[in-house]
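Hey L., structure's done. Input below.
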Amino acid sequence: MEEKKKFKLVSSKKTRYLLPNILTLAGVCLGISSIKFSIDGNFSLAVTLILFAAILDALDGRIARLIKGTSEFGKELDSLTDFVSFGIAPVFILYFWELNNYGKLGWAITLIYSVCCVLRLARFNLTKIENSEEWKNNFFEGIPSPAGGLLILMPLIYELTDLNIGFDLKNLTPYLTVLIAILLVSKIPTLALKKITISPKATVFLLLGIGIVFIALLFYTLETLLVFGIGYLISIPLGVIIYKSQSKKNLEKISDENHEDIL
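Output:
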């Protein structure tokens, strides 16, 4: 008598691929939902959903590597999700909030940002780093799309807070959007910090810092996002300096190795 085969959605050996992809799909749902809420005029919730999508985007890849659930399918799915959640959703939120007031120019800016984002993601997927240049894994080429999606929302985030610096940041919206679009496709090195080592003694302070950040996001979400945005903009020239320093050290190391081979 033949045994009944158990129905399985995926092979038992493939189940580890599900969790990262579920997080990725949740991210795209959040991105699309943010567009819906921006159409309804609920910009505060729309921005919050983009924040959650960015958090999921930061987690899915790390979880995939941690449980050895990386795959080519997951990589492509992540890029498509990034385009929707950070290449389309944030700039559409801006369009319904302010850019639509600029008529055709506002729509052109919306398209420019989305095009730059998809070009940035396509380039990222094709980027291959040699083993001799593994240090480059700690840097992005241009700013990543999640960071870009949050940065262009800074004028809106500022207006949603109770802060007042005596200047209407709304007027900077089209200029900031174009600037961030250019930074997306630029070759300016920005910090990625994918492969950094942390001293065991510093772990407790790292966890404390993460806890403080989550508490700040919980009670002062918009204000914390503004601080992060300003901090990230400041980190861009810092990333360029660190990149040049690392590049110089790597060239010196290669030169020394070649010199030893000759001797």
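Residues 87-256 form one domain. Residues 151 and 229 are 6 Å apart (CA to CA).

-- N.
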